[in-house]
Every structure is written in C-alpha cells, then in structure tokens.
C-alpha cells in the first residue's frame, strides 16, 4: 500500500510539473532545490519567456527534442523573432545519475539540440550561447523519477 501511495505522489508531482499552471518562483528560476535561495521575480522579456515556457524536458539519457518540447521551442522562437536584438543562453541540465563528466557532455548535447532546433525555426545561431551544468544545478532535489524527470532539461535564459 505504501509503495502505491509513493508511486501516486511521484506521478502527481510529474503531472504538476508538466502542467500549464504557473510555476512557483523558485521552480521557475531553477532554484527549487537550493535551500534558502529565493531569486527575485523575473520582469520583462524573461517573465514573458517563463509564461510561454522557458524549459524543455528530455527522456533519460537522451538529447532528442520531443514533440512537446518542439511546441515550446516554437513559442520561444516567436518571442525571439519579435525581439531580434535579444541574445540568450540555453543551459543543459541532467539528473544526478551518471558521472560528472558524462552528465556535462549530455547537458551540452541537450543545449546544442535546443540551439539547433531554434536555428531551424529561424533564430540566428549567433544570438544563442550554450552551456552545460550537467548534474550540478538540480531544479528538484530527490532520488526518484519525479525529481529526475524535472532535472533532465534545457532552460532558456535571456542574456
């Protein structure tokens, strides 16, 4: 019974993270797992980006863009096409499994996949920087699939 409850709670966490409801300030900034840190609320273009979706998620050990992620990237591309002076960085992140080196490389592949998708949508590559944080900056601290799923991501941040 306890296993079923834990599984249900984990599934609900994943569904809540994937819903279109506004994110909490800490989750939206990627600082949910850092104790005691609360980033200031974003303003302007970064706030607009968060409203349309500033992050995409990946399957375990993958860097391919899912159909859901492509939809988010299309909305991001529209925002950046309307603001051609804006440059931005795509941060690649991983869950905690695997070595530091492996996850840095996987995070880079995820950030690059995001960048390649954005350039295919008409955004100049020179406007996009990439960086990998590997497993070093988890959005959610936890050793379960619900936490890991939220940590396997690419986050777009306006420079």
Write a brief caption for the model.
This protein is an alpha+beta fold and 159 residues long. The chain has one domain (2-158): OmpA-like domain (60s Ribosomal Protein L30, Chain: A).
Low-confidence stretches: 1-36
Number of domains: 1
- Outline: globular
The number of helical segments is: 6
* Estimated share of beta-strand residues: 5-15%
Annotate the secondary structure layout.
Blueprint: H1 2-18, H2 25-29, H3 44-52, E1 55-57, H4 67-81, E2 88-93, H5 100-120, E3 128-134, H6 145-151, E4 153-158
Parallel strand pairs: 2-3
Antiparallel strand pairs: 1-4, 2-4
Helix pairs in contact: 1-6
Written description of the protein model:
By secondary structure, the chain is α+β, with helices and mostly antiparallel strands. The chain has a single domain, classed as 60s Ribosomal Protein L30, Chain: A (2-Layer Sandwich). The protein contains six helices and four strands; from the N terminus they run αααβαβαβαβ. It has helices at residues 2-18, 25-29, 44-52, 67-81, 100-120, 145-151, and strands spanning 55-57, 88-93, 128-134, 153-158. It has a four-stranded mixed β-sheet. Strand 2, helix 5 and strand 3 (128-134) form a beta-alpha-beta unit. It is globular.
List its salient traits.
60s Ribosomal Protein L30, Chain: A, 159 residues, 47% helix, disordered N terminus, alpha+beta, 4-stranded mixed sheet, 6 helices
């Amino acid at each position: 019974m306890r296993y079923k409850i834990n599984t249900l709670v984990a599934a609900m966490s994943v569904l809540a993270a994937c819903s279109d409801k506004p994110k909490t300030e800490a989750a939206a900034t990627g600082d949910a797992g850092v104790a005691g840190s609360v980033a200031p609320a974003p303003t302007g273009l970064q706030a607009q980006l968060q409203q349309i979706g500033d992050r995409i998620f990946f399957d375990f050990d993958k860097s391919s863009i899912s159909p859901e992620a492509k939809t988010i990237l299309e909305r991001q591309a529209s925002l950046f096409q309307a603001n051609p002076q804006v440059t931005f960085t795509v941060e690649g992140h991983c869950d905690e499994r695997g070595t530091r080196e492996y996850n840095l490389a996987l995070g880079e592949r995820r950030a690059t996949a995001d960048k390649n998708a954005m350039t295919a949508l008409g955004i100049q590559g020179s406007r996009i920087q990439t960086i990998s944080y590997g497993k070093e900056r988890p959005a959610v601290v936890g050793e379960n699939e619900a936490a890991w799923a939220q940590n396997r991501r690419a986050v777009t941040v306006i420079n």
